[in-house]
Fold:
Amino acid sequence: MNTLRAIAALSIALAHPSLAAAEGPLTLEEALALAARQNPDLVIAREDATAASADKTTAWSGVLPRLDLSATAGQNRRDVRGGGSFVDPTTGEVINLDGLSVNAVYSLDASLSQPLFDWSAFRNISRASAAQAASQRRYDEAVLGVAFAVTSRFLELVRAQRTLAVLETTAARTEELVRRADSLYAAGKSTRADTYTNRVNLGNDRIAVEGQRARVAQARSALAQVLGRSDAETASLEVVVPSALDASIGKPKEPPPLESVLEIAKKRRPTLAAARALVTSAEAAVGAAHGGYLPVVDARLTYGRTGSQLTGDSGVLNEDPSKSYSASALVVMSWNLFEGRATSAAVQRSESQVRRARADEERTLQAVTKEITDARAQATSNALQIALATDNLATAQNALSLARERLEAGLATQLEVREANLNLTRAELSLVEARISHAESLADLARASGGPL
Structure:
């Protein structure tokens, strides 16, 4: 199986989601393109990566400037009954304080703050960056998983269709035996029991064909599901058999050595990269937690205007910013000296997460090693099975030809021909199984190692 072309097709489809598969039977590349556009697992992984990118942006907000603007408008009401009197210094008028005092109040304030030192905020950026990298690698892993799922179900449909073709051929050969048995019976060279036996065999073969038709339909619907196609499109789904399954190709090549594949996987398998990034993120979180022991230093600039008039020469919205204002420029340090051991608990928790992330990284490496070992062993075994099944098929074909010749010469029975026919069917099915299983194991090995070998 050309896994390089398969994964490349999926990558192209992800980069150009408007591409659609052509009408008619699907090639494996077209199936991968459809999955890239419609598979729910990829959509979920893609949105998780987008959310991680937003988290990184949020982390940066902790060290960037912040500008706030606030405005108020309202009234102050005071009950000044019996409050005496006073002389207005500007007019000399005597004002009696007796009644309800109502004054309009307007304000406009702007403040700019810039963190100068916040260790937690700086380390949170590193944590979020590593978490984003891990999310992107998980998306890449999802791409590999979907590519393998599509390839596997595509090949499963090919297996079901080729098995159906073998069983139909077997039924056709049995039908020929029925006609021959009838001729021999008419010529007095066979018994009526032989004709009945061959008809029963033909009925069994046709039952097997119908059962396989159902399995073809099931394989077709399984492929449609992973492609994200609707039920209405399932019945018409047809595939093009990959050229790698052509019997004329000959003996398959052996996969690369196990040690070589493991080294390749350590460098490019997305799930391993994601596990490493999560360790980095957890380590950065430890630094962020330690920031609770350190002071936070900010620079702050404020500008405000307050008055009883909204407009006019002395109004809050006066165009001259140098009138009726208050401003301040401050450097503020805040240091939480004790908060009930919450900081130490946060450090302890984050250190525990680091140990957990490292253990998960080791577990992931062990899982990948097993996947590669199993897939390579299966590919090697399937390659040998193809060679054996090919030789076995040639022998079975010769055996059936010989049985037919012996039957014509009166030296063999219908039972011998039937047995030779079944042996040929088994040999054909074994070769179909070996070739498709080999293609699946190579695709699985490519997935486990992070890409084509």
